[in-house]
TrEMBL record, chains A, B:
Record has Transmembrane helix as a keyword: yes
Keywords linked to the UniProt accession: Membrane, Transmembrane, Transmembrane helix
Transmembrane segments: 26-46, 53-81, 101-122, 134-158, 178-196, 217-240, 270-294, 344-363, 370-388, 400-431
Subcellular location, principal: membrane
UniProt key word Transmembrane: yes
Membrane topology summary: Multi-pass membrane protein
PANTHER family in alphabetical order: SULFATE TRANSPORTER
Location of this chain's protein in the cell: Membrane
Pfam families reported in the protein's UniProt record: STAS (PF01740), Sulfate_transp (PF00916)
Name used for this protein in its record: Sulfate permease
CDD domains assigned: STAS_SulP_like_sulfate_transporter
Organism, scientific name: Pseudotabrizicola sediminis
Boundaries of every STAS domain copy: 454-574
Length: 588, 588
């Protein structure tokens, strides 16, 4: 039973479901439905798909998440970044608007579902940890910019091809004389109106004395108002004849039962995009879910979230939808509107189903420019310039990974961008660990502590070299340690013992072990003892298992203090001098 | 002048060259020449090239190394592993025996030379550090086995295609009925004779009272004896008519001036093999050079070695040769024979040039089976089974990288093998650092030291959680730290302060910084203080640069002891209990 309810979290909360829960969930569902319908149409357009596909992707996936998900407030469905990634991936295997394009999008959702479930079964969720914050943040910022710019064409009433910044801008520039002034007027007005409702309407309403909740709801219904007004304008002024592009006829029926393609060649082409979409979707979804769960002191189970997102994507594919994930905006609305359980998602699904069947004729005259405005206003909030500045100030390596991600997304594409960012951040980590910080240390007077002689006033002894390496020893840095020790023992005629202080050495691999043997051998032939100190438990255990100890003639001291006092006492003709009056006290 | 002599090390030693040096160098050159001539023919056969190509690769490259190299004893030329890699790379773009095959081999040498020089200019020699010992050791062992097995066909007198273990063995099995008994007899006899001279002749001669040096020289001339005797047998018994394959006519002239192909498509196909050959050749060459330099307390300059090996390969390409590197066997012979300067290499080049022009007619009747026997006996000494056992005992991760390298080399190929080994060793390193060792620590009674409560009898306090993370904090392990801290603070009603002890934290990247902020925020909202201790200098500097300190309400203690005593003194209603009588003293 416990295992069953960990696979089906619904079994955990459904038996305790109350009438009050139902009331909260229903209210939340109505609000989210109103918000989701135009958003679903818009994101489908962004993905290059017919508008109804966005609606299909907002029905069954929500039911699947309600059954398998561990977050009480997460709302899954089409989101901006994943829609952009879908357009990029599918655009490489089929022409936009073709039947193959739709099939490829459905197949991508299916594959992405399989990848997510496989990651759950194989416990590969940790792979998402390799997407660093700067890479994710840069990726989302750049995607937001790219999406906003790609929507400009709909505001201008022209149509361009391409999925990189330069191509889109070049295409727009080349076709600028085909600009439709009516479309432009509608698009600019809608964009300005949406920005205004988003940023200034709520404070205004609050200032007029409206209750906070009502002000919030009115402000959030901005997109609905824009849609209604623009439809009225199109119909009233006969703008279709003036060249304003509209959404057009949307088939008003239940989501179809769809079958993904099982063409292995197509699977091969879509596998990498599916993996990237899965990882990005998982990271976005889990971070939203965790933020919301923490607010109510609930917990989510990341591994189960993989299963839930996988099931949602498979459900999306089987009902004619495209890849989905937990969205930030909709989840926050769901949470704020008071959703208590995942059943709110199921109610939302019912709402969108009803809208799909009964309301789609109303959207026929909706101008594409208004959908584009909705997208632009939504995605520009993803652009986080402050994060770029903060990262630059803190770490140039992190900034480099972020900058490469942003530039590659904008200039090459989304998949190349995330791949380049992850590769560079891993390479920079390896590069850093391959050049460890190595310090000569001395005793802080009056304590048992040893610190860098370049940073502190410390006691040293010319007969003893205390050297601390601040990194695990492994193949990439083993030579650097050898070189550093050989450099430091040169021109030290009084030197009798070298102590390698290892408090920061968390592991020693086979390559580094050979280097330690080489160092011990070389120092030994020069008449210098080689010892270790402050070796961690697991590292000592490993050394004991090897044949290193058979040849090792030095000692392993529990502390550097013990090493220093023992070796000072044992060595002949040397003196130890305190700070300030000393033979070899160095201060930075 | 100093910069000039660092680019041309020859300027460092040539002015001080003495008559005694010349004598030593000449003697060494004669010995190495005798050894190199059959070896060059054999390795050319291994690379699938005409025998004279091996000789060409042993002339100009030695001159180039004498000018640019920093090792006094390194002997460059064709070596077994690089010959195998050449065969694998070139075999993918041209048919063995064709003119394109030879051009591709020459182009590979040229490309490899350019890669090495570029690595030198860009100071990329550190890339070789990413080839771990277990991967190199596994690669050489597997290559040795693969080479030995690939030579079986020549011993049996049949011819098979393929460059993986199963294909070669399958090919031999399929053609076993075409076995030539005369070839087999010659091959088996030669192999047995060579093993005997290598292993048992020297002790025997020493026991008979010969001086050590003479015994060594006689034992090392085994291959020459085998060659002379087998040529006599072939000619005397008319074995060519019986189907024994011979080396055949070798054109006896100066090395030609050759021009590599500048076909960009070919360059693209050969680039990855050229990079791998360069890295493997560099690692082998530098490790041989360093071993020999240490024996005479000389130093080599790894970055200059890249230039020297690059120049050698370009010289090889321009004189009709194929990729070369510093060989272990020939360098040791050169060193033992008393070579004092790289001029020994130039003398050797002159010797091989003379052999190429005047002696090649003698080799016409040399049976290929004897060359194969020379190769088999040479490469089986590369197979190091003890290293496999040692690595297994020390570290399962290192063993996994080694095993994957060996199996992939044998079953797929040399390039795939080294790529798989390097990838796996990097992945395992990342995997390990992404799951850091995290310990709860307490005070070792009577000292200022804090150790793992699971390993030592230590003093703790229920109001203070001292937690030590044994890894740098970066994107891949930031979540693991968060999870560990949240897990440890659960069910600790008395807890007032958490101290994160950071002696092993060598860096904190932007992702981990966000995690620390999240931890501080979450603990703060639960009324628990969050502090750091023993933060390294560079890490503190980085924290100070960020806006972390603006929000951070905790303290950064110099030592865990200071943190523990300060927080114990400050906190109300708590007691501190020594080992054995305590409230929360845990012992493993």
């Amino acid at each position: 039973m416990k295992r069953l309810s960990s696979l089906f979290p619904i079994l955990g909360w459904a038996p305790a479901y109350t009438k009050a829960d139902a009331q909260s969930d229903l209210v939340a569902a109505v609000i989210v439905t109103i918000m989701l319908v135009p958003q679903s149409l818009a994101y489908a357009m962004l993905a290059g798909l017919p508008p109804q596909v966005g609606l299909y992707a907002s029905i069954l996936p929500l039911i699947a998440y309600a059954i398998f998900g561990t977050s009480r407030a997460l709302a899954v469905g089409p989101v901006a970044v994943v829609s952009l990634m879908t357009a990029a991936a599918v655009g490489q295997v089929a022409a936009p608007g073709s039947a193959e394009y739709l099939t490829a999008a459905i197949t991508l959702a299916f594959l992405s579902g399989i990848v997510l479930v496989a990651m759950s079964v194989l416990r590969l969720g940790f792979l998402a940890n390799f997407l660093s914050h700067p890479v994710i943040s840069g990726f989302i910022t750049a995607s937001g910019l790219l999406i906003a710019i790609s929507q400009l064409q709909h505001i201008l009433g022209i149509r361009v091809e391409g999925d990189s910044l330069l191509r889109i801008l070049g295409g727009i520039y080349a076709k600028l004389d085909g600009l439709n002034p009516f479309t432009l007027a509608i698009g600019m007005t809608a964009t300005a109106f949406l920005f205004w409702t988003r940023k200034q309407l709520k404070p205004l309403l609050l200032a007029r004395g409206l209750p906070a909740r009502a002000a919030d709801l009115i402000a959030k219904s901005g997109p609905v108002a824009a849609i209604v007004l623009s439809i009225l304008a199109v119909v009233g002024f006969g703008l279709v004849d003036k060249g304003v592009r509209i959404v057009g006829d949307i088939p008003g029926h239940l989501p179809p039962f769809a079958v993904p393609s099982f063409d292995l060649g197509l699977w091969q082409e879509l596998l990498l995009p599916a993996v990237l979409i899965s990882l990005v979707g998982f990271v976005e979804s889990v971070s939203v879910a965790q933020t919301l769960a923490a607010k109510r002191r609930q917990r989510i189970v990341p591994n189960q979230e993989l299963t839930a997102l996988g099931a949602s994507n498979i459900a999306s594919a089987l009902s004619g939808g495209y890849p989905v994930t937990g969205g930030f905006a909709r989840s926050v609305v769901n949470f704020d509107a008071g959703a208590e359980t995942p059943l709110a998602g199921a109610f939302t699904a019912a709402g969108i189903l009803a809208a799909t069947v009964f309301l789609t004729p109303l959207f026929q005259f909706l101008p594409q420019a208004v959908l584009a405005a909705t997208i632009i206003v939504a995605v520009l909030s993803l652009v986080d310039i402050a994060a770029i500045r903060r990262t630059w100030a803190y770490s140039k390596a992190d900034f480099a990974a972020m900058a490469v991600t942003i530039l590659t997304v904008l200039l090459v594409g989304v998949e190349a961008g995330i791949t380049a960012g992850v590769s560079l951040s891993l390479a920079l980590f390896l590069w850093r660990t391959s050049r460890p910080h190595i310090a000569i240390v001395g005793q802080v007077p009056g304590t048992e502590h040893f610190r860098n002689i370049d940073r502190h006033d410390v006691i040293t002894d010319p007969r003893i070299l205390s050297i601390r390496v601040d990194e695990s020893l492994y193949f990439a840095n083993a030579r650097a340690l050898e070189d550093a020790i050989y450099d430091h023992i040169a021109d030290q005629p009084l030197l009798r013992n070298v102590v390698l202080m290892c408090p920061a050495v968390n592991a020693i691999d086979a390559s580094a072990l050979e280097s330690l043997e080489a160092i011990a051998h070389r120092l030994g032939s020069a008449g210098i003892g080689f010892h270790l100190s402050e070796v961690k438990g697991p590292v000592t255990d490993a050394l004991m298992r090897s044949d290193f100890m058979d040849h090792f003639k030095g000692r392993i001291f529990l502390s550097q203090y013990e090493a220093f006092t023992t070796l000072t006492a044992a060595a002949p003709n040397g003196t130890m001098t305190p700070t300030g009056s000393g033979m070899r006290v160095e201060t930075a």
